[in-house]
Amino acid sequence: MTDPAYDYDLFVIGAGSGGVRASRIAAGYGARVAVAEEYRVGGTCVIRGCVPKKLLVYGSHFAEELQDAANYGWTVEKMTFDWPTLRDAVAKDVDRLNAAYTNTLNSNKVEHFLDRATITGPNSVRLASGREITAKHILVAVGAWPVMPEFEGSEHCITSNEVFHLESLPRRVVIAGAGYIALEFAGIFNALGSHVTVVNRSETILRSYDASLRDRLLQITMARGIEYKFNCGIERVEQHEEGCLMVHMKGQPDPLPADAVLVATGRRPKTDGLGLENAGIELGAHGEIVVDELGQTTCPSIFAVGDVTNRVQLTPVAIREGHAFADRVFGGKDTRVSYDCIPSAVFSQPPLASVGLTEAQAREKLGSNVKIFTSDFRPMKNIFGHRPERGLYKLVVDAQTDKVLGVHLIGPEAPEVLQAAAIAVKAGLTKADFDATVALHPSMAEELVLMR
Ligand SMILES: Cc1cc2nc3c(=O)[nH]c(=O)nc-3n(C[C@H](O)[C@H](O)[C@H](O)COP(=O)(O)OP(=O)(O)OC[C@H]3O[C@@H](n4cnc5c(N)ncnc54)[C@H](O)[C@@H]3O)c2cc1C
Ligand SMILES: NC(=O)c1ccc[n+]([C@@H]2O[C@H](COP(=O)([O-])OP(=O)(O)OC[C@H]3O[C@@H](n4cnc5c(N)ncnc54)[C@H](O)[C@@H]3O)[C@@H](O)[C@H]2O)c1
Questions:
Q1: What residue owns the CA closest to ligand 1's atom 6?
Q2: Which of 55, 137, 276, 426 is least enclosed by beta carbons within 10 angstroms?
Q3: Annotated active-site residue in 61, 248, 386, 441
């Protein structure tokens, strides 16, 4: 396999979810592999995405747990919260993971350069430090980058890149956008005691999720004190004395005062300045690298995986794409990625989780041949905690075949419940299979097999 004409068999640009997996697997097949990383090994998920975000969700959730504690007989005195303690503990865990990912590269004999790489031709890259490297194959796994819309004063705003490093907990937070990142951080800051206003250009939050879940999330988060301003966008942000920001919005007479403005209006493939034109690589309308179903770009020696291809921006998908690439190109296996029934979750408070077709998608596809089963319940935990919030579980079923086409959940621990349900949907199980399964009691998950 090794071709002495090149420095490496594989050069990977980006040591994130997709790049690290591809490097490790290719090296395991005996390929000589190197990877360049311009920031920190681990990539978005580990360094400034899924992992630190989930730790902040856990950290903020104590507000609710500590309130509930009294009902269980606990006395918690002087309940206070210290942002720098949580922030620094999260940063320390990120350091631990960064080291673990670096060790993975070392122990798999993947050479790594902490440097930015650009493509100079079909088989060559240049590191920012000046070194030229040749490789038989190049894998582009550079991920995506937060989009900052153009408006006056945008330099005073932060994105998800900076939110993990805030000096102090902002008393008032304005969040632009109503997608994953916006609603996850709205939940975190709201639970930590900040006043949160979500500003969105449309009336729809989390567009890709089932409408009943979205409505429920809106209702609960509004009751928890999150304010929403729909059909408007940020026009300009002014910085006043002592760091106070004034957020002016289109169509809103009064500006909003804020201590932090988080812009979460999507992420764009990080292809700018990457030298893709030097290898004739075609880009799509959103700056994404166009690939075929095997991840091959319009340059046959160059492949791309993960967010940079703008297909499904989720870590497990980037990992699978990286693994499949290495299997096919270096392992002689025809591994493919199945994009059908990918489960996803929003770690809002409460969280929601989903797999398969929403009710609207099923009705569009099957017309009236759709059966909907729902369970609208008040989790035991909420009853004991004197919280009126209700969970909602929904099954979308093909009325002709009885197949469960979609499972949609909102409520405590919904993502934990959904993963197992996703196996059933992926396996094509029927509503009768769900009904035939004995409930596990007492649990919230039992609602899945009790819907009639
Ligand atoms: C706040 C946030 C929360 C998220 N939460 C979740 C979640 O809960 N669940 C989930 O599944 N997904 C989540 N995601 C999405 C997930 O992080 C991404 O889908 C995933 O990291 C994509 O992996 P990747 O390999 O394509 O890119 P990345 O992990 O982004 O890795 C790309 C790497 O390439 C490096 N790089 C870029 N250009 C160059 C260059 N020219 N030279 C060298 N290196 C370069 C970057 O520094 C980066 O380390 C979240 C994202 C964000 C921002
Ligand atoms: N739990 C998870 O799995 C998780 C968490 C965070 C991020 N992610 C991934 O990262 C991606 C990026 O997250 P995100 O929240 O930034 O994007 P998103 O696509 O989820 O949401 C973007 C939001 O910004 C709004 N918007 C877009 N352009 C705008 C503009 N010019 N002005 C005002 N509003 C605008 C959209 O209407 C939408 O509400 C997600 O699509 C997801 O794949 C996943």
A1: 50
A2: 426
A3: 441
- What ipTM was reported for this prediction? 0.98
pLDDT digits (tens, 9 = 90+) for 424-452: 999 999 999 999 999 999 999 999 999 99
Instruction: Identify which of 334, 335, 336, 331 has the alpha carbon closest to the alpha carbon of residue 1.
Output: 331
- Asked whether residue 357 falls in the same domain as residue 298, the answer is no
Ligand 1 atom with the smallest distance to the CA of 306 is 26
Handedness of CA 116, 166, 48, 107 (dihedral sign): positive
CATH of the domain at 289: 3.50.50.60
Question: Is residue 52 within 6 Å of ligand 1 at its C-beta?
Answer: no
Task: Give CA–CA dist 224/190, Å, rounded.
Answer: 8
Q: For 389-398, how does the pLDDT look when each residue is reduced to its tens digit (9 = 90+)?
A: 999 999 999 9
Q: Is 26 exposed, middle or buried (0-12, 13-18, 19+ CB in 10 A)?
A: buried
C-alpha–C-alpha distance, residues 288 and 311, integer Å: 9
Q: Cα dihedral angle (434, 208, 231, 146), rounded to 10 degrees?
A: 130
Asked if 165 is an active-site residue, the reply is: no
CATH number at residue 362: 3.30.390.30
